[in-house]
């Protein structure tokens, strides 16, 4: 695991593009240019972490957004794995390492939101010890399934 920096922007952008091309429907797909990443690098509350393979390709990425002010004890997490590297436990490996780092930085609780159809992410986050604390019913209409999907809220006390 390594903390990602501006020097990793090309690799980050490539992974975000792959996710967008497969219609992943997550926050990483909001990145439509390398310039969009600059907002992340400028924001002190955002930390990016990644796992690289032997050929130096970014295989998994996690974005941690620390709360500000009276919410500085918490962090929101989002993770993604390159399509060619899924089902290798990279997301859970990266998440657990980042959680240890966040705890050492004074974070007391980590949260994430997962769409109810995303069983792979649900399994990963539960494997990492997160518990579901609620759901936003009918969060949005999903044209792919032709129905409404819930947004599940997960947390883990560190």
TrEMBL record:
Pfam family, one: Acetyltransf_1
PROSITE patterns in the cross-refs: GNAT
Domain (N-acetyltransferase) ranges: 1-158
Domain of life: Bacteria
This protein's name: GNAT family N-acetyltransferase
InterPro entries: Acyl_CoA_acyltransferase, GNAT_dom
């Amino acid at each position: 695991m390594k903390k990602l920096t501006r020097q990793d922007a090309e690799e980050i952008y490539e992974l975000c593009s792959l996710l967008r091309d497969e219609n992943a429907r997550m926050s990483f797909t909001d990145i439509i240019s390398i310039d969009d990443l600059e907002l992340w690098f400028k924001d002190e509350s955002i930390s990016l972490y990644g796992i690289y393979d032997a050929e130096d390709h970014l295989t998994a990425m996690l974005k941690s957004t620390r709360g500000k002010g009276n919410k500085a004890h918490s962090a929101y997490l989002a993770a993604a794995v390159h399509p060619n590297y899924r089902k290798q436990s990279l997301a859970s490996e990266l998440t657990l390492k980042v959680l240890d780092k966040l705890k050492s930085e004074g974070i007391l609780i980590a949260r994430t939101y997962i769409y109810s159809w995303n069983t792979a992410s649900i399994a990963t986050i539960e494997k990492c010890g997160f518990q579901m604390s609620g759901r936003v019913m009918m969060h949005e209409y999903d044209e792919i399934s032709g129905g409404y999907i819930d947004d599940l809220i997960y947390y883990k006390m560190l």
